[in-house]
């Protein structure tokens, strides 16, 4: 089922889009995917060090979730994690979200890194 009417368009409710938006919108998920997309693979501690404010517990939870849906895979040596093909395909989407945020966040009154009150 598709809800696109042409290139760059989207109409109506789509459960697949809702799932993807909620996945990316979970705290630190986009950052973890970004780190692994950038590095290809990384140890747990290296991911944590590249995402300021990310706790060990939350990183473990997010990696488990992302591994469960096939976005991240634990390396065969069990020392680190790698991004899968499915995860790499999120890279351009995250770049588009970043570009949108750069363009509109100040006009909307939000600043990256600032939490809503």
From TrEMBL:
Source organism superkingdom: Bacteria
InterPro entries: HTH_HxlR, WH-like_DNA-bd_sf, WH_DNA-bd_sf
Region forming the signal peptide: none
Keywords of the record: DNA-binding, Transcription, Transcription regulation
Pfam families recorded: HxlR (PF01638)
Single Gene Ontology MF annotation: DNA binding
Chain ranges of the HTH hxlR-type domain: 14-109
PROSITE patterns associated with the record: HTH_HXLR
PANTHER family assigned to the protein according to its UniProt record, in alphabetical order: HTH-TYPE TRANSCRIPTIONAL REGULATOR YODB, TRANSCRIPTIONAL REGULATOR, MARR FAMILY
Protein name listed in UniProt: DNA-binding HxlR family transcriptional regulator
Native organism: Longispora fulva
């Amino acid at each position: 089922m598709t809800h696109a009417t042409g290139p760059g368009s989207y109409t109506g409710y789509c459960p697949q889009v809702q799932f993807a938006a909620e996945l990316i919108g979970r705290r630190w998920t986009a950052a973890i995917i970004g780190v692994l997309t950038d590095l290809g693979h990384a140890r747990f501690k290296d991911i944590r060090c590249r995402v300021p404010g990310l706790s060990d517990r939350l990183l473990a939870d997010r990696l488990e979730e992302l591994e469960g849906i096939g976005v991240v895979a634990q390396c065969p040596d069990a020392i680190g994690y790698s991004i899968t093909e499915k995860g790499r395909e999120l890279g351009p989407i995250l770049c588009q979200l970043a570009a949108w945020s750069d363009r509109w966040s100040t006009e909307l009154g939000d600043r990256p890194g600032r939490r809503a009150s």
